[in-house]
Design goal:
three-stranded antiparallel β-sheet; BirA Bifunctional Protein, domain 2; 340 residues; elongated; binds phenylalanine; seven-stranded mixed β-sheet; 10 strands; 2 domains; alpha+beta
C-alpha cells in the first residue's frame, strides 16, 4: 500500500515538473495549477487519501505528499515570475526603424535674455550682480528708503500686502538696503528681479514685471558718474548713436532725482507712434543716494556718496524688439517666444 502511494507521488512529481517547464503563458499556468493543486487536483486528492494509509506508513506518506505540494507551489510561482519578466522584456524591445518623437528645443525667455544682457553691460563696468527676496517687509520696501508711513509717495508704489504683514516688493530698491546692511562701502551692484504692483493688466501694465536696480557707493561719486555710467549702458544696449536726456524728477530715496529718456530708437527723434511723436522714450529713474538712506544703513553720509537707478526690463525689451504688448511676455505662446 505504501509503495503504491510512493509511486503515485513520484509519478505526479515527475509529470508535473515536466509540464511546468513547458508553460508559456498565464493561462497554461492556471490550468496546471488547477490540475494538481485545485480542489479536485491530483495532488489534492492524494492528500485526501492519506488517512487511509496504514498507520505505520501514514506519517511518511503525509510528509512526502506535503513536501511535493510545497515544491509544486514554489515551481509554479517561479514560473510565474519568469513569464512576467519575459513579458516586460518584450514590451521594452525597441524597433529602431520607427521614427523618433521630435523634441522641440527650448530657448531662453526674452525677458531673461534682456535681463542678462543688461546685467552683462554693468558687469563689464565693475558692477556685481546680486539678488534679494520677492517677499519683503514694509521696512525694506519703504521705510529704509525714506518713504515713512503716510508719506504720499507710497501711493506711487501700489503694493500687494500679504496676510502675515509682509508684502510683495513693488520695486527692486529694497535690495539697495539689504546690500548696504551687509557690506561695507565702496560697492557697485546691480539687482535684477521680479516686482509686483496691483495694476489692471493692459498693453503696457502687468501685475508682475521685472526691474534692474543699480547702486554705486564710493567716496567721490558725483552726478557725472551716474551720467557716464548710464550713457555707456544706453549706447551698448540701443546703439552708439542713441541720445540721452535727463529730466528732473522726484524719488524719495534719491536727491537730486531724474528720469532718463533716450532718443526714439524707431524714428531717431523725429517723432513716430512708438514715442507718441515726442522723439523721446522714458527708460529709467535715477539719482544720487539720499543721505537719509545712508543713515538707515548706518553709512556716514559725510564720507560716502552714491548713485542709484532702476529700470523696467520688459519696457527695455519692448523698445529694443519693437514689442507693443507686455502681455505677450507672459502668455507662453511659442510662436512669440520662438522669435528670440
Ligand atoms: N525704484 C524706482 C521705481 O520703481 C526706480 C528708481 C530706482 C529710481 C533707483 C531712482 C533710483 O520707480
Amino acid at each position: 500500500m505504501y509503495k503504491n502511494m510512493r509511486k503515485k507521488i513520484e509519478k505526479i512529481e515527475k509529470e508535473a515538473l515536466i509540464q511546468i517547464e513547458k508553460i508559456v503563458n498565464e493561462e497554461e499556468l492556471q490550468n496546471l495549477k488547477a490540475k494538481y493543486l485545485g480542489r479536485k487536483g491530483l495532488l489534492t486528492q492524494l492528500l485526501k487519501s492519506i488517512p487511509k494509509v496504514p498507520l505505520k506508513y501514514r506519517p511518511e506518506a503525509g510528509k512526502s505528499a506535503n513536501l511535493l505540494k510545497r515544491k509544486l507551489e514554489q515551481e509554479l510561482r517561479s514560473r510565474h515570475d519568469l513569464l512576467r519578466k519575459k513579458k516586460e522584456k518584450e514590451r521594452l524591445k525597441i524597433d529602431i526603424t520607427m521614427p523618433g518623437i521630435h523634441q522641440e528645443l527650448g530657448s531662453i525667455h526674452p525677458v531673461t535674455q534682456t535681463m542678462r544682457q543688461i546685467s552683462q553691460i554693468f558687469m563689464n563696468l565693475g558692477f556685481k550682480v546680486v539678488d534679494g527676496p520677492e517677499i519683503e517687509t514694509d521696512y525694506y520696501n519703504f521705510t529704509a528708503l525714506n518713504i515713512p508711513e503716510g508719506h504720499p509717495s507710497r501711493e506711487t508704489f501700489h503694493t500687494f500686502y500679504l496676510d502675515n504683514g509682509k508684502l510683495l516688493r513693488s520695486q527692486t530698491s529694497p535690495v539697495q538696503i539689504r546690500v548696504m546692511e551687509k557690506e561695507k562701502p565702496p560697492l557697485k551692484i546691480v539687482a535684477p528681479g521680479k516686482v509686483f504692483r496691483p495694476d489692471a493688466t493692459d498693453a503696457s501694465h502687468s501685475f508682475m514685471f521685472h526691474q534692474i536696480e543699480g547702486l554705486a557707493v564710493d567716496k567721490n561719486i558725483t552726478f557725472a558718474d551716474l551720467k557716464g555710467t548710464l550713457s555707456v549702458f544706453v549706447r551698448e544696449m540701443f546703439g552708439q548713436e542713441t541720445q540721452m536726456r535727463f529730466r528732473p524728477h522726484f524719488f524719495p530715496f534719491t536727491e537730486p532725482s531724474a528720469e532718463i529718456d533716450i532718443s526714439c530708437i524707431i524714428c531717431a527723434g523725429s517723432g513716430c507712434r512708438v514715442c507718441s511723436f515726442k522723439g523721446w522714450l522714458e527708460i529709467l529713474g535715477a539719482g544720487l543716494v539720499d543721505p537719509n538712506v545712508f543713515s538707515a544703513v548706518k553709512y556716514d553720509s559725510e564720507l560716502w556718496r552714491g548713485f542709484a537707478f532702476g529700470m523696467g526690463v520688459e519696457r527695455i525689451a519692448m523698445l529694443k524688439y519693437g514689442i507693443t504688448d507686455i502681455r505677450l511676455f507672459f502668455e507662453n505662446d511659442v510662436r512669440f517666444l520662438k522669435q528670440f
